Amino acid sequence: MEAWTTIRYLRVQGRGIKAIARELGVSRNTVRLALEREGPPHYQRPPQPNPKLEPYREFIAFMHHLLRNYPSGELHVILDNVSSHDSKEVQEWHKRPRNKRVVFHFIPTYSSWLNLAEVLFNLLQAKVLRRGVFPSKQALVTAIMDYIEKFNAEGHIFQWTKTAQTIISSSNNLTGH
Predict the structure, then answer these.
(1) Contact 34/41 with Cβ under 8 angstroms?
(2) Domain map (residue ranges) of the chain
(3) Which listed site, 16, 22, 48, 70, has its alpha carbon 20 to 30 Å from 30?
(4) Residues 78, 144, 106: CA angle, nearest 5 degrees
(5) Which residues fall within 8 angstroms of residue 122, CB to CB, at 6 or more apart?
(6) In this structure, are residues 117 and 107 in contact, taking their beta carbons and an 8 Å threshold?
(7) How remote is the C-alpha of 7 from its chain's centroid?
(8) Which helix (H) or strand (E) holds 172?
(9) For the whole prediction, is pTM greater than 0.85?
(10) CA–CA distance, 172 with 159 (Å, rounded to integer)
(11) Terminus-to-terminus CA distance in the chain, angstroms?
């Protein structure tokens, strides 16, 4: 470490710990440690799991949570086509006998309108966020919460115009899901 040799050199020149720390832009504790040790310090960060590399872990943990909270009967889970839902690890988890009561249903590709969370985010974008000016984070949160309260108060039941069988057969023909 370059700073270690510089700290030792400045100390030999007669500079104080506070002056060295100020000059190098490090803490006084760092200066003290550099002076106490025989050689430069070796920093080693603990390994950090990268959630982008293993997104399936969170999904499997959620599935275990569902199985614990609903201990009997089939569980039908509707999923979008994010890669973690159909990863090799999730497929292996799903093959285990104790997880067979979970039935996955994948929505067709390019059908974000079936994902109600995406529908809500699209509405928020269109009705609240686009062209909005929010002087603070609290103002943004207030605008979002006000819209959600209004949305819930004005909510109405959605009526499908096609039967479930028609929708299922058309999605199976188009996407293979």
Answers:
(1) yes
(2) 2-36, 56-106, 112-177
(3) 48
(4) 10
(5) 112
(6) no
(7) 42
(8) helix 164-175
(9) no
(10) 22
(11) 56
